[in-house]
Amino acid sequence: xxxxxxxxxxxxxxxxxxxxxxxxxxxxxxxxxxxxxxxxxxxxxxxxxxxxxxxxxxxxxxxxxxxxxxxxxxxxxxxxxxxxxxxxxxxxxxxxxxxxxxxxxxxxxxxxxxxxxxxxxxxxxxxxxxxxxxxxxxxxxxxxxxxxxxxxxxxxxxxxxxxxxxxxxxxxxxxxxxxxxxxxxxxxxxxxxxxxxxxxxxxxxxxxxxxxxxxxxxxxxxxxxxxxxxxxxxxxxxxxxxxxxxxxxxxxxxxxxxxxxxxxxxxxxxxxxxxxxxxxxxxxxxxxxxxxxxxxxxxxxxxxxxxxxxxxxxxxxxxxxxxxxxxxxxxxxxxxxxxxxxxxxxxxxxxxxxxxxxxxxxxxxxxxxxxxxxxxxxxxxxxxxxxxxxxxxxxxxxxxxxxxxxxxxxxxxxxxxxxxxxxxxxxxxxxxxxxxxxxxxxxxxxxxxxxxxxxxxxxxxxxxxxxxxxxxxxxxxxxxxxxxxxxxxxxxxxxxxxxxxxxxxxxxxxxxxxxxxxxxxxxxxxxxxxxxxxxxxxxxxxxxxxxxxxxxxx
Length: 554
What we know:
This protein is an alpha/beta fold. Helices cover 36% and strands 19% of the residues. It is built from 19 helices and 25 strands. Strands 1, 2, 3, 4, 5, 6, 14, 15, 16, 17, 18 and 19 form a twelve-stranded mixed sheet that branches.
């Protein structure tokens, strides 16, 4: 069987100018990065007029080692809409090098539903992640330089909240000490790294609607506090202009293509378990202006990516999603029903029925935002007819359509029924999007609302340190901000071992931080980390270059 990489490398890609032409763009409207990648300047998009396209979110059930294929379904759906001549645009996040070289792998789909050139997108691409990492590093460097000579902003070295960032899984960098080389090496203090996907610069990048907004948001970053507890903004360090200069070219959305020739805007890449998990607002708006329907995805299950898509991205961007696809696999439902990974090939309708509670929970959650869902059953070769029928029957009982899809093996042709089901929802106009909570709720009440309504928790336990920080943030005027919950992706709860649809649990909030430039507050639950680690045999060990060709990349 061909690997994803071999399938991608065997494809005959169209010149990027041909892909741009599908969006009504002339060769002079794009900035090519080689033959198969390009940037679309934001001013070109704005000149094209209003954002009139339909918006479709692809989300999924809680992820498992069995695989769900959410990105693969998103690509397959977009290609199916192309076959139906619906003029779609696919909008995805950029992959992070951390998962690429770690355990999870890349983020360009799979099989015959991929975004290409696959290896370039998964590695350096157009350099956006490097630009974001550099902008973050600049602020870190200037902050420590300010402490060193002299500290006119009265920054308390023990109350600095701005970490360092790198786009790699490296657990050794979670907690470090800096300035240890003597008087000329800076002020000694505790510090740490987050992965670039968790950087506030990434969040700002993905929510800014232009360079002026980007710069203003960078200025609003809270980098720490004075000895009197007053917040200090990045504006005081005077480098938001330089950070914007580093991000200037990166802010333009990236144009590539799917194996089916559908235009794809791959731009921005925050994780959904520790950040807001959506591609850039700039790219989504570009898709809505240039195409008739945008297919986008949000990370991990609907309790994370979809909730943040609806409550943060749509709220800030004034987006009106018209439909949502909830991706599920028989294999993942069986794992949620208690089957071990090594036993998934054995038929078990009973396990599917037990695990169906997880899918049902995600479907109900999507409906709470006023967006009609359809379930995509991403079919694997080991699925039996009885197991698939059990999923369909369960969905019928919920009053939601379920469509079998084969994006991996069939590409767009394997998702035509799904495309028809999605289009029928869009044409019905039944969507009535609404956020889960209003802005004027307190931060604690917002966390409680998400925990009870989306996770199914009995309540929230806010640790003393987190409660004190909530009070400080509300006193600083951040009480109206939405909340971005950092939580394990593997469970509705904050305990990764509780699969299915757990009940009788509470959510523990151990830390709350401000992303004042992005415009939200982050609540960290359970044992979630903002710097992942590598496993015993990271995927990087399989990657090589042979005769000038990259191998081993999935």
